[in-house]
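Take a specimen:
=====
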Amino acid sequence: MDTSVRPPAVAGLFYPDDPDDLQTVLAESFDNARRDHPVAPPAPKAIVAPHAGYIYSGPVAASAYRLLSAGKDVITRVVLLGPSHRVPLDGLAVPSVDAMATPLGLVPIDAEGRDIALSVPGVVVADGPHAPEHSLEVHLPFLQLVLDDFKVLPLVVGRAPAAMVAAVLDAVWGGPETLIVVSTDLSHYHDHATATRLDGATAGAVVAGRTDLIDDRDACGAYPLRGLLEAAGRRHMTAELIDLRTSGDTAGPRDRVVGYGAFVVH
């Protein structure tokens, strides 16, 4: 039986399409990650990480991903949520494919988790939002590097209330074998000083679990982010800030930056 595969859409654009070059760039991201937090079990239940080109956001994403090495033998399923940048969408969409491809190989889809997610109102099967979307794809090579064998449940999140997203997460929450990854950048196209101030306020809202203080303009992945915080709050879990930088801190000019934050949920 043939396997249907969602091919990479931004390999060669957001990250290298050559496997060796990709491994090198990933290693550089981890070299430039924040190391203030020790890697110790258990691994976090969820992480929030950015999704820009690796040269810009890779080090910030790696600040969260390095902490997953404590669970590499335990985590076998990743629920991956990111915003829909290019296709208008109400609710959440899962793809129909059997796997997602990166230059490092295939990542199988969690078909059982997909069926469970589809039982929640607001979730549909739709390949259109997934085909061009980078917000999920750029996380797959990081996951392939830090985890052993795992399946992924990819969810593109459109306009969806926090309660809807939280209901999906509740349905697939699982135990220590399940990791949740929310993909989002923070403020867009301010000068560095302004972005630092705005992103600091957003980071404070995330850590406090204040979904009401996270506006759509504060984070392009505000919808999945608010859903994660609501689901975590129900379980008396908290988010911790791991890294907060802008593209002006990593590789770009400082007059027009994008903000990036890395968080873990314990």
The longest strand covers residues 257-265. The radius of gyration is 17 Å. Residues 91 and 127 are 14 Å apart (CA to CA).
